[in-house]
Write a structure and sequence with these properties.
With about 220 residues, this protein is an alpha/beta fold. The protein has helices spanning about 40-45, 90-105, 125-135, 150-165, 185-200; strands spanning about 10-15, 25-35, 65-70, 75, 110-115, 140-145, 175-180.
Length: about 220
């Protein structure tokens, strides 16, 4: 039996303003995290194609970028948070865009929160996880750049996460894994999870009106 070819990813659209956001239907996989957490690099590794623009300067993403991967799956790359050099106006615009985006996120969506493997979760991560959980959105924590961690450091991270998330009052069904866009560790497993998730969702992926986005996807 011939192996079924993998779906080809493509840029679906870009939204810079709340009114440009499309309706979200179908299999929606959201990638979010602090600026410079490695979202774009990881997406390119998953796609096996350089679709997401990678910048050496953190905080360059100003838009919500949508990628179609097969007939049903839409991956969403949202602007990173926590970049202090942004102006107050830029931070306010980010908050408005994010609030409008999450208002449209269905509870069938799957969120991947990226965290640099050497960083401890902070208030932003806890807030996002709690907010997504309240909306009924499953969240998987991706510890990025794991090629920089030795085995002792990885075990320490596992114990730390257990202590931080498996406590009374915060019993959220959170899962996590190590990934590295540089070495490819964990990327195949992530790719399989995304494709399996898409099979579970019966509705077609969202459409994005290109006339509502005047600029191409980029960071």
């Amino acid at each position: 039996m011939k192996k079924k070819p993998s779906p080809i990813p493509e840029i679906l659209g870009t939204s810079y303003l709340p009114e440009q956001l499309p309706e979200l239907r179908g299999a929606i996989a959201i990638f979010l995290g602090r600026s410079n957490a490695g979202k774009s690099s990881l997406l390119n590794a998953v796609f096996k194609k350089d679709l997401a623009r990678v910048s050496k300067s953190p905080g360059k993403t100003r838009s919500v970028n949508f990628y179609r991967w097969g007939p049903k799956l839409c991956l969403v790359d949202v602007p990173g948070y926590g970049f202090a050099q942004r102006s107050r106006e830029e931070r306010d615009a980010w908050k408005e865009l994010m609030a409008s985006f999450f208002d449209k996120v269905p509870d069938s969506a799957l969120a991947f929160l990226l965290l640099d493997g050497k960083r401890e979760p902070e208030a932003e991560e806890f807030g996002l996880i709690d907010g997504l959980h309240e909306r009924g959105v499953s969240t998987h924590l991706l510890l990025t750049k794991c090629d920089r961690l030795n085995q002792a450091e990885r075990e320490a991270r596992r114990r730390g996460l257990e202590a931080q998330f498996r406590v009374p009052g915060r019993e959220i069904p959170l899962t996590w894994s190590f990934v590295s866009a540089k070495t490819g560790e964990g990327v195949d497993a992530l790719r399989r999870r995304l494709l399996e998730y898409a099979k579970e969702i019966p509705i077609s992926a969202p459409t994005h009106d290109p006339q509502r986005s005047r600029r191409g996807a980029g960071h």
